[in-house]
Amino acid sequence: MLKLAYLGPEGTFAEEALRILAPEAERLPSANVGAALDAARRGEADGAVVPLENSIEGGIATTLDELARSEPLLITAELLLPVEFSLLARPGKEIGDIKRVISHPAALTQCRGYIARELPDAVAVSAPSTAGAAQEVALPGSPYDAAIAARIAGEHYGLVELAGGIGDRSDTVTRFVRLSRPAPPPAPTGSDRTSLVAFLSDDHPGALLEMLTEFSVRGVNLTRIESRPTGDGIGRYFFHFDFEGHIADARVGEAVSGLHRVCEGVRFLGSYPRADGLAPQIRRGTADADFDEASGWLARIRGGQV
Ligand SMILES: O=C(O)C(=O)Cc1ccccc1
């Protein structure tokens, strides 16, 4: 039976994402994003489901850095999950009692306005996951008074909901990805996204523009670009790119090989169906047929047919 690791414990948004992405899979909860990915790498699970970015805070740094630096894994699917946060405490507590609140950093950021307004004196502490925070608060003698997590996590760990819908925006969406060990990507669907990480060869004027040009001249539309520090000092960065299309598409393949030529290194992170089902607008001269026709023409002129 297919087994997938996820950011646990039970009751995380990652679990909700996994249940939608692979309802039939056996679920292996992991203590944090790194542990879920390691379970997939080591073969304890067939893959993993982890959050990649959300619509307020942007990229989930641990996921982005793990995918860029640790043993390679491939993204095979994505899911956009609307998330809603609740303030959860042990029975008997009231909002006025909350002095220490705990949650995943992405949840704390997305509830920043609520915390500032309703819990101005509370200290906010990070946990590896929202449900992990709820589990911690439920422990007798826990130093934390409340957790921010999904309502269902509160039900699971015997907490009461002091407030619901406490996110600063009601339309927050988190993008989750399913990963597997390296393998050929899923077949193109016509509505696909490709992800990769590119490392600069050296720091020089226009280095980022050189990378962007590889996409631009082939009509490849970017959907996300994010810089992350390499860890080698202030001012040293690598870049995450998401873009429309599949590695099997000529324009995408050409852009990715172009990047490989101008960068120190490129790590392919996968081509997979887009959750929103949108199809790319193919610009004039960048369809597969155009690339085929052009390489046929080049072969002919090289063969002397001018
Ligand atoms: O901690 C969780 O439940 C997660 O799945 C990570 C997360 C945290 C906050 C918003 C979306 C996802």
From TrEMBL:
EC id: 4.2.1.51
Record field: catalytic activity: prephenate + H(+) = 3-phenylpyruvate + CO2 + H2O
Pathway entry: Amino-acid biosynthesis; L-phenylalanine biosynthesis; phenylpyruvate from prephenate: step 1/1
Residues the record marks as site: Essential for prephenate dehydratase activity: 174
Residues of the ACT domain: 196-274
GO molecular function, one term: prephenate dehydratase activity
InterPro entries per the UniProt record, alphabetical: ACT-like_dom_sf (IPR045865), ACT_dom (IPR002912), Chor_mutase/pphenate_deHydtase (IPR008242), Preph_deHydtase (IPR001086), Preph_deHydtase_CS (IPR018528)
GO CC, any one term: cytoplasm
GO terms of biological process kind: L-phenylalanine biosynthetic process
Annotated Prephenate dehydratase domain residues: 3-181
Enzyme class: lyase
Keyword entries, A-Z: Amino-acid biosynthesis, Aromatic amino acid biosynthesis, Lyase, Phenylalanine biosynthesis
NCBIfam families reported in the protein's UniProt record: PRK11898.1
Protein name: Prephenate dehydratase
Organism (species): Planomonospora parontospora
